[in-house]
Amino acid sequence: MAVNRRDFLLLRAGQPAVLSCEQLFMRYLDSQADDSTARLFDQLAADLRSVTEVQVTDSSWRAREDFNDRLTHVLAVFETRGGRVMCTGN
Predict the structure, then answer these.
(1) Smallest Cα–Cα separation from 39: which of 9, 74, 72, 82?
(2) How far apart are CA 30 and CA 32, in angstroms?
(3) Which residues lie below 8 Å from residue 12, measured CB to CB, with a gap of 6+?
(4) Distance between CA 79 and CA 53 in Å, rounded?
(5) pLDDT tens, position by position, 1-48
(6) Parallel/antiparallel/unpaired status of strands 17-20 and 9-10
(7) CA distance 24 to 62
(8) pTM of the entire structure?
(9) What b-and-e string marks burial along 46-73, b requiring 16 or more CB atoms within 10 Å of the CB?
(10) How does DSSP assign the chain, residue by residue?
(11) Cβ-contact 61, 25 below 8 angstroms
(12) Of 45, 43, 80, 75, the residue nearest 62 (C-alpha)
């Protein structure tokens, strides 16, 4: 699976990066089919290292516990290093 930052984060100059839970969840389902889930979230964590703020959208997609647990972990690490997470929209 080819993964790059544009797949996860929408970057706009002077604004927080935007992470769509809907888009990430679709990639998550694909990653389960080819056993690349760990790589998917490792890449997301790496992408988050290049930003200081992220706006998480489409939070209703976090209803599935296994997906939410993985995303929560990545975001917690991001916050631990000083990043700011803002959640909007369901």
Answers:
(1) 74
(2) 5
(3) 18
(4) 9
(5) 444 444 567 766 667 889 999 999 999 999 999 999 999 999 999 989
(6) antiparallel
(7) 10
(8) 0.85
(9) ebbeebeebbbbbbebbeeeebeebbee
(10) ----HHHHEE--TTS-EEEEHHHHHHHHHHHHHTT-HHHHHHHHHHHHTT-SEEEEE-GGGGGSHHHHHHHHHHHHHHHHTT-EEEE---
(11) yes
(12) 75
Tokens at residue 72, please? 């929560």
User: What is the residue type of 49?
Assistant: R
- The domain ranges of the chain are 23-87
Residue 76 identity (one-letter amino acid):
A
